[in-house]
Amino acid sequence: MADHSPLPADEIRAIVRRVTQGVLEADLSTDAADPGTRMHLSDSTAVETGGRPGDGSASAGIAIGADHGGFALKQDLAGKLAVAGHRVVDCGTDSPHPVDYPDVAHAVARLVAEGAVGAGIIIDGAGIGSAMVANKVPGVRAALCYDLSTARNSREHNHANVMTLGAGLTGPALAWQIVEEWLSVSWGPDRHARRVAMIDDFEHRYSRLLEPSRGGA
């Protein structure tokens, strides 16, 4: 019979590390399938991890990444974040040459999940696909933000630690306002924290299935 007792925090963090490392190794081993668009992301892993998912704050650093469609906006926002005094980890891409957005989204989400940075920003054409990818990584709560209200709401209500933007939908001036707003809003307590704990609980239930010794199958 399956064990439904809560997983200790140390076990959850160990699962996050094993899953993200396993996915990265699989990425590198399958690059040959389409070498023209796959990114090599090993450089982005050379960051000391904090041992637990990012708390969404900028104080521990911000990972930023974009596919070719979001490259120009990523360059603009990364520069502004650095000027504002933030530690910025650039996960690529490094040119307008076409790349696959899942690789970039995973690189940013992985750093947040492992606690190497406190928050992440991912940019593609619409911001939708990158949010889907990032939310597959345990410990990540990614939200597509397209105005100041969605930025505030994703932080206060949903404790987002990754934000995605659509470069085809949001201009540079508004995008910077959204980033500033998103970073300035704290995670909400009380009912918001309780509901986010419910989100985490669902994630932990499925994470348990990755542990054969727990008998989750």
In short:
The chain has 217 residues and is of the alpha/beta class. It has helices at 9-29, 71-83, 101-113, 128-134, 148-156, 172-184, 191-207, and strands at residues 62-66, 88-90, 119-124, 142-144, 162-166. Helix 1 packs antiparallel against helix 3 and helix 3 (101-113) packs across helix 4.
Query: What radius of gyration results from the CA coordinates?
Result: 17 Å
Helix and strand pattern: HEHEHEHEHEHH
* Overall average residue pLDDT: 84
Percent helix range: 40-55%
Distance between the termini: 9 Å
Strand content: 5-15%
Low-confidence stretches: 28-33, 42-46
Largest sheet: 5 strands, parallel
Read across the widest sheet, the strand sequence of neighbours is 2-1-3-5-4
Question: Quick one: overall form?
Answer: globular
- Individual helix count: 7
Count of extended strands: 5
Judged by helices, strands and strand pairing, the structural class is alpha/beta
Description:
This protein is α/β, with parallel strands linked by helices and 217 residues long. It has helices at 9-29, 71-83, 101-113, 128-134, 148-156, 172-184, 191-207, and strands spanning 62-66, 88-90, 119-124, 142-144, 162-166. The chain contains seven helices and five strands, in the order αβαβαβαβαβαα. α1 (9-29) packs antiparallel against α3 (101-113) and α2 (71-83) packs across α6. The radius of gyration is 17 Å and the shape is globular. The N and C termini lie close together (9 Å).
